[in-house]
Amino acid sequence: MARLNSQLLPQLDIPRPSYDRGSVKPGIVHLGIGAFHRAHQAFYTEAVMNRSGGDWGIIGCSLRSAGVQQQLAPQDGLYTLLERSTENRPQIIGAVQKVLVGPDDPAAIIAAIASPSVAIISLTVTEKGYCHLPASGTLNLEHPDIQHDIANLERPTSAPGFIVAGLRQRWRENLGPVSVMSCDNLPDNGAVTRSVVTALAAAVDPQLADWVRREVSFPGTMIDRIVPATTAEDIDWLQREYGYRDEGLVVAEPFSQWVIEDNFCRGRPTWETVGALLVKDVGHYETMKLRLLNGSHSLLAYSGYLAGYATIFQVMQDADFVTLTRRFMACAATTFTPPENFDLSVYQEQLCERFANPGLQHKTSQIAMDGSQKVPQRWLNSLRKLSEEDRDCRIYTFAIAAWIRFVKGVDEKGEAIKISDPHAATFAALWQEYGANQRRLIKEFFAQEMIFGQDLAGDENVQQETLRWLDVITNNGIRSAVQMLLNG
Length: 488
Ligand code: CS2
Known about the structure:
Number of helices: 21
Number of domains: 2
CATH class of the largest domain: Alpha Beta
Bound molecules: D-mannonic acid
CATH superfamily of the largest domain: NAD(P)-binding Rossmann-like Domain
Oligomer: single chain
CATH topology of the largest domain: Rossmann fold
Structural class: alpha/beta
Shape: globular
Largest sheet: 5 strands, parallel
């Protein structure tokens, strides 16, 4: 069966690059070339090149495994983006020129960042990839990868390490600045990136840090598109329907949104011509998206998983969970200032429809990963506001109880749950030690300052309520707890 590559391209009856791929120079180095980047930033950049050309080829970098390189190298960097809802709409994307793998060849990534034509370094390395302390947004200098990178900057392992090594080379060779653009679901992602990169640069060479402060810009972004992990069935389906094999296939919902702070020091693709919104400040968009979309996603992931649902689509077939989602969003929507002239109720309706997309197999277990990194910005800032104002916090304390119950690592039928989280071992130890005394267990969870900060560690009411929910979930099961919440 024919594998997707440049030669096969003319034979395919599918939208494909209309520009001359061979003559495009690289303009972007992207760290963390997973499915999300390929369905989102690469999709917008492809649309710009299809519309008006430009040297915006993407050099993708994997900082951990060679998986994506093995998928894309035999395909000349080409892959299919399949939009799925009730219909299927494939498109071939040509923006990715090659994929480099950090552990195999770190020097190649540093050299790519230091290529003269490169104007933007972008990142989707997930929350934990910033090696920062989520509560303060500052670099965790104790992080083993950061300690390694300070001592061995010519062979970095972390995202901040690669960026600083590449910037150092640009500085030494006088190649001029670049913009460093985070596309991760972090509040203030531009400021966090600036903070970790300058802190690491300062630990390596204070003069480099001065140069970074003066010359490099760190635009913030709000990124949105639901992109479930591709499955072997998806790849087989494409092969059956369209007659070619694509190991790099990416499946996404039709919706996508990108709000970008217009703060680039060396030019950028004209993303605004293909649907992105370039603004002065992304803060309100970011907060809204994190608290409404990602906040309800995490709620549905933990409670839905415990109720036995494998995907968000399945969760949204259950009327109680739909009501739970609507209630959660209505409450979350009162905790922040929306972007100007923005209709929050339309946004919430749209989110419910997106979650119920029958074409997506978005696993609850996928969203449930890395809760320690996600819970603070998705739930806890809203909870703080409600608690400060003495308002009803129950939907949040319920959510926290569901998460704590989830990280026990055993479901309601007694089957093991694989907990994927940088703090999984701590959670297992807490359950082991205090599982028989849930009051103490809750206290110990809230004492995890990197998640709850100092304030919530001292919030007796919030802990009391969380304990109440954990007791209900433990004694009556998650479904009864949901009903009790909705009827209470
Ligand atoms: C999800 C996000 O996995 C998760 O935690 O909440 O990846 C979500 O699908 C995207 O942010 C949507 O834009």
